[in-house]
Amino acid sequence: MRAGVIGFPISHSLSPRIHRAWIKAAGLEAAYDAYEVAPGELKAFVEGHRGAGTLRGVNVTIPHKEQALALADIADAAASLAGAANVLLFRPDGVIEARNTDGQGLLEALRIRIPDFDPKTCRVLILGASGAARGAVAAFVAQGNTKVVIANRTQEKAQALAKTFGVSAEPWTSRKIPPGTEVVINATSMGLGDTPSPQLEWPAPSGPGVALDMVYKAPSFLADAERKGWKTVDGLEMLIGQAAPSFEAFFAVPPPANYRALALAALGAPA
Ligand code: ATR
Protein backbone atom coordinates (compact mmCIF):
# COMPACT_ATOMS: atom_id res chain seq x y z
CA MET A 1 0.00 0.00 0.00
CA ARG A 2 1.46 3.32 -1.05
CA ALA A 3 0.28 6.87 -0.48
CA GLY A 4 1.97 10.25 -0.29
CA VAL A 5 1.75 14.00 -0.44
CA ILE A 6 2.07 16.25 -3.49
CA GLY A 7 2.92 19.95 -3.53
CA PHE A 8 5.43 22.48 -4.80
CA PRO A 9 7.80 22.88 -3.10
CA ILE A 10 7.38 19.75 -0.97
CA SER A 11 10.68 19.10 0.81
CA HIS A 12 9.52 20.81 4.02
CA SER A 13 6.27 18.81 4.27
CA LEU A 14 5.80 17.24 7.70
CA SER A 15 3.16 14.78 6.46
CA PRO A 16 5.61 11.91 5.73
CA ARG A 17 6.86 12.02 9.32
CA ILE A 18 3.33 11.84 10.70
CA HIS A 19 2.05 9.07 8.40
CA ARG A 20 5.23 6.98 8.69
CA ALA A 21 5.01 7.08 12.48
CA TRP A 22 1.42 5.82 12.31
CA ILE A 23 2.25 3.14 9.70
CA LYS A 24 5.02 1.84 11.95
CA ALA A 25 2.92 1.89 15.12
CA ALA A 26 0.01 0.17 13.33
CA GLY A 27 2.37 -2.48 11.89
CA LEU A 28 1.15 -1.85 8.33
CA GLU A 29 3.01 -2.89 5.19
CA ALA A 30 2.74 0.56 3.69
CA ALA A 31 4.75 3.52 2.46
CA TYR A 32 4.09 7.27 2.46
CA ASP A 33 6.35 9.54 0.40
CA ALA A 34 6.59 13.17 -0.68
CA TYR A 35 6.31 13.89 -4.41
CA GLU A 36 7.30 17.25 -5.79
CA VAL A 37 4.81 18.10 -8.54
CA ALA A 38 5.22 21.43 -10.34
CA PRO A 39 1.99 23.27 -11.23
CA GLY A 40 2.26 22.38 -14.93
CA GLU A 41 2.70 18.69 -14.07
CA LEU A 42 -0.32 18.17 -11.83
CA LYS A 43 -2.71 16.90 -14.48
CA ALA A 44 -0.18 14.39 -15.85
CA PHE A 45 0.60 13.17 -12.32
CA VAL A 46 -3.06 12.68 -11.44
CA GLU A 47 -3.98 11.01 -14.74
CA GLY A 48 -0.84 8.83 -14.54
CA HIS A 49 -2.13 7.27 -11.32
CA ARG A 50 -5.75 6.79 -12.44
CA GLY A 51 -6.65 3.14 -11.84
CA ALA A 52 -2.95 2.21 -12.01
CA GLY A 53 -2.74 0.60 -8.58
CA THR A 54 0.49 2.49 -7.91
CA LEU A 55 -0.80 4.86 -5.25
CA ARG A 56 -3.89 4.48 -3.06
CA GLY A 57 -4.05 8.25 -2.90
CA VAL A 58 -2.27 11.45 -2.01
CA ASN A 59 -2.57 14.37 0.31
CA VAL A 60 -2.55 17.60 -1.64
CA THR A 61 -0.93 20.80 -0.45
CA ILE A 62 -0.02 24.25 -1.74
CA PRO A 63 -0.46 25.20 -4.56
CA HIS A 64 -2.59 22.32 -5.87
CA LYS A 65 -5.67 22.12 -3.63
CA GLU A 66 -8.11 23.93 -5.93
CA GLN A 67 -6.85 22.27 -9.10
CA ALA A 68 -6.94 18.84 -7.46
CA LEU A 69 -10.67 19.25 -6.90
CA ALA A 70 -11.15 20.29 -10.53
CA LEU A 71 -9.26 17.22 -11.80
CA ALA A 72 -11.23 14.71 -9.70
CA ASP A 73 -14.29 12.85 -11.00
CA ILE A 74 -16.23 13.03 -7.75
CA ALA A 75 -15.90 15.01 -4.52
CA ASP A 76 -17.22 14.81 -0.99
CA ALA A 77 -19.37 17.62 0.43
CA ALA A 78 -16.47 19.13 2.39
CA ALA A 79 -14.27 19.47 -0.70
CA SER A 80 -17.12 20.91 -2.77
CA LEU A 81 -17.94 23.48 -0.08
CA ALA A 82 -14.30 24.44 0.49
CA GLY A 83 -13.64 24.60 -3.26
CA ALA A 84 -10.46 22.62 -2.62
CA ALA A 85 -9.24 19.09 -1.92
CA ASN A 86 -6.46 17.97 0.41
CA VAL A 87 -6.99 14.29 -0.43
CA LEU A 88 -7.18 12.56 -3.81
CA LEU A 89 -8.02 8.86 -3.88
CA PHE A 90 -7.07 6.74 -6.89
CA ARG A 91 -9.76 4.09 -6.69
CA PRO A 92 -9.23 0.64 -8.24
CA ASP A 93 -12.24 1.23 -10.53
CA GLY A 94 -10.41 4.18 -12.11
CA VAL A 95 -12.49 6.86 -10.40
CA ILE A 96 -10.54 9.73 -8.85
CA GLU A 97 -12.21 10.97 -5.69
CA ALA A 98 -11.51 14.31 -4.00
CA ARG A 99 -12.02 14.80 -0.27
CA ASN A 100 -11.28 17.59 2.15
CA THR A 101 -10.29 16.72 5.71
CA ASP A 102 -8.81 20.16 6.54
CA GLY A 103 -12.07 21.33 8.09
CA GLN A 104 -12.19 18.25 10.34
CA GLY A 105 -8.57 18.93 11.28
CA LEU A 106 -9.38 22.51 12.20
CA LEU A 107 -12.33 21.59 14.41
CA GLU A 108 -10.39 18.72 16.01
CA ALA A 109 -7.51 21.10 16.83
CA LEU A 110 -9.92 23.51 18.53
CA ARG A 111 -11.56 20.68 20.50
CA ILE A 112 -8.20 19.84 22.06
CA ARG A 113 -8.12 23.23 23.81
CA ILE A 114 -11.84 23.72 24.48
CA PRO A 115 -13.43 20.43 25.51
CA ASP A 116 -16.95 21.89 25.36
CA PHE A 117 -16.23 23.78 22.13
CA ASP A 118 -19.33 23.91 19.92
CA PRO A 119 -18.48 24.58 16.27
CA LYS A 120 -22.19 25.10 15.55
CA THR A 121 -22.60 28.18 17.71
CA CYS A 122 -19.22 29.78 18.51
CA ARG A 123 -18.37 33.28 17.27
CA VAL A 124 -15.38 33.12 14.95
CA LEU A 125 -13.04 35.71 13.40
CA ILE A 126 -11.07 34.45 10.39
CA LEU A 127 -8.14 36.48 9.08
CA GLY A 128 -7.49 36.04 5.36
CA ALA A 129 -9.60 35.35 2.28
CA SER A 130 -7.57 32.92 0.17
CA GLY A 131 -7.87 29.12 -0.01
CA ALA A 132 -6.97 28.44 3.63
CA ALA A 133 -9.49 30.99 4.87
CA ARG A 134 -12.17 29.64 2.56
CA GLY A 135 -11.60 26.17 3.98
CA ALA A 136 -11.93 27.49 7.53
CA VAL A 137 -15.15 29.37 6.74
CA ALA A 138 -16.53 26.25 5.03
CA ALA A 139 -15.75 24.12 8.11
CA PHE A 140 -17.97 26.28 10.33
CA VAL A 141 -20.69 26.88 7.74
CA ALA A 142 -20.91 23.10 7.18
CA GLN A 143 -21.80 22.87 10.88
CA GLY A 144 -24.61 25.38 10.34
CA ASN A 145 -22.64 28.20 11.99
CA THR A 146 -22.96 31.60 10.32
CA LYS A 147 -21.52 33.59 13.25
CA VAL A 148 -18.32 33.93 11.26
CA VAL A 149 -16.58 37.23 10.49
CA ILE A 150 -13.88 37.48 7.81
CA ALA A 151 -11.21 40.20 7.83
CA ASN A 152 -8.72 40.51 4.97
CA ARG A 153 -6.21 43.12 3.80
CA THR A 154 -8.00 43.26 0.43
CA GLN A 155 -11.50 43.87 1.66
CA GLU A 156 -13.27 43.05 -1.61
CA LYS A 157 -11.99 39.48 -1.28
CA ALA A 158 -13.34 39.26 2.27
CA GLN A 159 -16.70 40.59 1.12
CA ALA A 160 -16.87 38.18 -1.82
CA LEU A 161 -16.05 35.21 0.44
CA ALA A 162 -18.54 36.36 3.07
CA LYS A 163 -21.24 36.66 0.42
CA THR A 164 -20.55 33.16 -0.91
CA PHE A 165 -21.07 31.65 2.53
CA GLY A 166 -23.70 34.02 3.99
CA VAL A 167 -21.39 35.31 6.74
CA SER A 168 -19.99 38.81 7.43
CA ALA A 169 -16.86 40.78 6.61
CA GLU A 170 -15.09 43.45 8.69
CA PRO A 171 -12.36 45.88 7.62
CA TRP A 172 -8.84 44.57 8.28
CA THR A 173 -7.47 47.97 9.26
CA SER A 174 -9.26 48.14 12.61
CA ARG A 175 -7.16 45.29 14.09
CA LYS A 176 -10.05 44.93 16.52
CA ILE A 177 -11.63 41.66 17.46
CA PRO A 178 -15.45 41.90 17.39
CA PRO A 179 -16.94 41.76 20.93
CA GLY A 180 -17.94 38.26 21.99
CA THR A 181 -15.52 36.53 19.59
CA GLU A 182 -14.57 33.10 20.96
CA VAL A 183 -12.26 31.80 18.21
CA VAL A 184 -9.68 33.80 16.20
CA ILE A 185 -7.94 32.05 13.31
CA ASN A 186 -4.95 33.31 11.34
CA ALA A 187 -5.58 31.91 7.86
CA THR A 188 -3.32 34.43 6.10
CA SER A 189 0.19 33.61 4.98
CA MET A 190 1.53 36.13 7.52
CA GLY A 191 4.09 34.51 9.81
CA LEU A 192 5.39 32.17 7.09
CA GLY A 193 9.15 32.29 6.71
CA ASP A 194 10.44 35.51 8.22
CA THR A 195 7.27 37.56 7.60
CA PRO A 196 5.58 39.20 10.59
CA SER A 197 2.43 37.67 12.06
CA PRO A 198 -0.82 39.68 12.05
CA GLN A 199 -1.01 42.10 14.96
CA LEU A 200 -4.39 42.47 16.63
CA GLU A 201 -5.72 44.40 19.59
CA TRP A 202 -6.47 41.41 21.80
CA PRO A 203 -9.12 42.11 24.46
CA ALA A 204 -9.43 39.84 27.48
CA PRO A 205 -11.48 36.89 26.18
CA SER A 206 -15.17 36.90 27.01
CA GLY A 207 -15.70 33.25 27.82
CA PRO A 208 -13.62 30.47 26.25
CA GLY A 209 -11.31 32.41 23.91
CA VAL A 210 -8.99 30.45 21.67
CA ALA A 211 -6.52 31.61 19.01
CA LEU A 212 -5.36 29.26 16.25
CA ASP A 213 -2.52 30.01 13.85
CA MET A 214 -2.58 27.88 10.70
CA VAL A 215 1.07 28.82 10.20
CA TYR A 216 3.22 26.52 12.34
CA LYS A 217 5.98 27.72 14.60
CA ALA A 218 5.16 31.41 14.11
CA PRO A 219 5.11 32.36 17.76
CA SER A 220 4.15 36.04 17.83
CA PHE A 221 0.45 35.74 16.87
CA LEU A 222 -0.18 33.13 19.55
CA ALA A 223 2.15 34.78 22.08
CA ASP A 224 0.19 38.06 21.79
CA ALA A 225 -3.08 36.17 22.31
CA GLU A 226 -1.71 34.20 25.25
CA ARG A 227 -0.53 37.36 27.04
CA LYS A 228 -4.15 38.53 27.06
CA GLY A 229 -5.43 35.26 28.50
CA TRP A 230 -6.45 33.42 25.30
CA LYS A 231 -5.84 29.70 24.88
CA THR A 232 -3.69 28.92 21.85
CA VAL A 233 -3.56 26.18 19.21
CA ASP A 234 -0.56 25.72 16.96
CA GLY A 235 -1.06 24.86 13.29
CA LEU A 236 0.60 21.49 13.93
CA GLU A 237 -2.56 20.35 15.71
CA MET A 238 -4.57 21.08 12.58
CA LEU A 239 -2.03 19.24 10.45
CA ILE A 240 -2.38 16.18 12.69
CA GLY A 241 -6.17 16.56 12.74
CA GLN A 242 -6.42 16.47 8.93
CA ALA A 243 -3.87 13.67 8.65
CA ALA A 244 -5.88 11.19 10.75
CA PRO A 245 -8.91 10.91 8.40
CA SER A 246 -6.52 11.03 5.41
CA PHE A 247 -4.66 8.00 6.78
CA GLU A 248 -7.91 6.07 7.14
CA ALA A 249 -8.92 7.02 3.58
CA PHE A 250 -5.62 5.67 2.21
CA PHE A 251 -5.09 2.56 4.31
CA ALA A 252 -8.67 1.59 5.32
CA VAL A 253 -7.77 1.54 9.04
CA PRO A 254 -7.71 4.46 11.45
CA PRO A 255 -4.36 5.56 12.86
CA PRO A 256 -3.49 4.12 16.31
CA ALA A 257 -5.55 5.47 19.23
CA ASN A 258 -2.59 7.51 20.53
CA TYR A 259 -2.16 9.10 17.09
CA ARG A 260 -1.72 12.62 18.40
CA ALA A 261 1.10 11.70 20.79
CA LEU A 262 2.78 9.59 18.08
CA ALA A 263 2.60 12.49 15.60
CA LEU A 264 3.87 15.07 18.08
CA ALA A 265 6.77 12.77 18.98
CA ALA A 266 7.56 12.22 15.28
CA LEU A 267 7.60 16.01 14.80
CA GLY A 268 9.73 16.59 17.89
CA ALA A 269 6.98 18.80 19.34
CA PRO A 270 5.93 18.85 23.02
CA ALA A 271 2.73 16.89 23.78
P1 ATR B 1 -3.16 33.61 -2.29
O1 ATR B 1 -2.34 33.78 -3.53
O2 ATR B 1 -3.85 32.28 -2.17
O3 ATR B 1 -4.09 34.77 -2.01
P2 ATR B 1 -1.19 34.62 -0.43
O4 ATR B 1 -0.80 35.69 -1.36
O5 ATR B 1 -0.13 33.85 0.26
O6 ATR B 1 -2.11 33.53 -1.11
O7 ATR B 1 -2.15 35.31 0.67
C1 ATR B 1 -2.86 34.54 1.57
C2 ATR B 1 -3.65 35.46 2.46
O8 ATR B 1 -2.75 36.18 3.31
C3 ATR B 1 -4.48 36.51 1.73
O9 ATR B 1 -5.68 36.66 2.46
C4 ATR B 1 -3.62 37.75 1.84
O10 ATR B 1 -4.35 38.98 1.81
P3 ATR B 1 -4.75 39.69 0.41
O11 ATR B 1 -5.97 38.97 -0.07
O12 ATR B 1 -5.01 41.08 0.78
O13 ATR B 1 -3.56 39.49 -0.50
C5 ATR B 1 -3.01 37.58 3.19
N1 ATR B 1 -1.75 38.30 3.34
C6 ATR B 1 -0.56 37.95 2.82
N2 ATR B 1 0.38 38.86 3.18
C7 ATR B 1 -0.24 39.80 3.94
C8 ATR B 1 0.18 40.99 4.62
N3 ATR B 1 1.45 41.39 4.60
N4 ATR B 1 -0.74 41.70 5.30
C9 ATR B 1 -2.03 41.29 5.34
N5 ATR B 1 -2.49 40.17 4.72
C10 ATR B 1 -1.62 39.44 4.04
Strand content: 15-25%
Mean pLDDT, all residues = 95
Name of the top-level CATH class of the largest domain:
Alpha Beta
Can you count the helices?
A: 10
Strand tally is 12
**Order of SSEs:** EHEHEHEHEEHEHEHEEEHEHH
Note the topology.
Elements: E1 2-7, H1 15-26, E2 31-36, H2 42-49, E3 57-60, H3 65-71, E4 74-75, H4 77-82, E5 87-90, E6 96-99, H5 102-113, E7 124-127, H6 131-141, E8 148-152, H7 155-165, E9 168-171, E10 183-186, E11 210-213, H8 219-227, E12 231-234, H9 235-251, H10 259-266
Parallel strand pairs: 1-2, 1-3, 4-6, 7-8, 7-10, 8-9, 10-11, 11-12
Antiparallel strand pairs: 3-5, 5-6
Helix pairs in contact: 1-10, 5-6, 5-9, 9-10
2'-monophosphoadenosine-5'-diphosphate is lined by residues 128-131, 152-154, 157, 188-190.
Account of the protein in words:
- There is one protein chain.
- This protein is an alpha/beta fold.
- The chain has two domains: 127 residues, Rossmann fold, CATH 3.40.50; 131 residues, NAD(P)-binding Rossmann-like Domain (Rossmann fold, 3-Layer(aba) Sandwich), CATH 3.40.50.720.
- Helix content is 37%, strand content 19%.
- The protein is built from ten helices and twelve strands.
- It has a six-stranded mixed sheet with strand order 2-1-3-5-6-4, with helices on both faces. The chain has a six-stranded parallel sheet with strand order 9-8-7-10-11-12, with helices on both faces.
- Strand 7, helix 6 and strand 8 form a beta-alpha-beta unit.
- Helix 5 packs across helix 9 and helix 9 crosses helix 10.
- The protein is globular, with a radius of gyration of 18 Å.
- The protein starts with a strand and ends in a 5-residue tail after the last helix.
- The model has no long low-confidence stretch (mean pLDDT 95).
- The site of 2'-monophosphoadenosine-5'-diphosphate (ATR) has 11 residues, from loops.
